[in-house]
Amino acid sequence: MPSLSPTVLEAAPTPRGPAAGVNQFHESALAQVAGAVHYIDDLPEVRGTLHAAPILSTQAHGKLLGVDASAALAMPGVVNVVLSEDIPGDPMLAAFAGDEPVFAMDTVQFVGQVVGVVVAHTAMQARHAARKVKLNIEALPAVLTVQQALEAQSFVLPPVTVRRGDATAALAKAQHSLHGTLEVGGQEHFYLEGQIAYAMPLEQNQWCIYSSTQHPGEVQHWVSHALGIDNHAVKVECRRMGGGFGGKETQAGHLAVWAAVAAVKTKQAVKLRMDRDDDFMVTGKRHPFAYEYTVGFDDSGRLTALQLQMAANCGFSADLSGPVADRAIFHTDNAYYLQDVDITSYRCKTNTQSHTAFRGFGGPQGVILIETIMGDIARALKLDPLDVRLRNLYSDEAIAGTDQKRDTTHYQMKVEDNILHPLLSKLELSAQYRRRVEAISAWNAGSPVLKRGIAITPVKFGISFTATLFNQAGALVHVYTDGSVQVNHGGTEMGQGLHTKVAQIVADELGIPFARVLCTASDTSKVPNASATAASAGTDLNGRAAQFAARHVRDNLAAFVCGLDGCGAGAIKFKGGEVFSPVTTRSFDEVVKLAYANRIQLWSDGFYRTPKIHYDKTTLTGRPFYYFAYGAACTEVVIDRLTGESKVLKVDILHDVGRSINPAIDVGQIEGGFVQGMGWLTTEQLVWNDKGYLSTHAPSTYKIPTAGDVPEHFKVDLWPEPNREDNVFGSKAVGEPPFMLAISVYEALRDAVAQARGDDKLVRLTAPATAENVLRALQSGA
Ligand code: MTE
Ligand code: HPA
Ligand code: MOS
Question: DSSP letters along 757-774, please?
Answer without folding.
Answer: H-SSPPP--PBS--HHHH
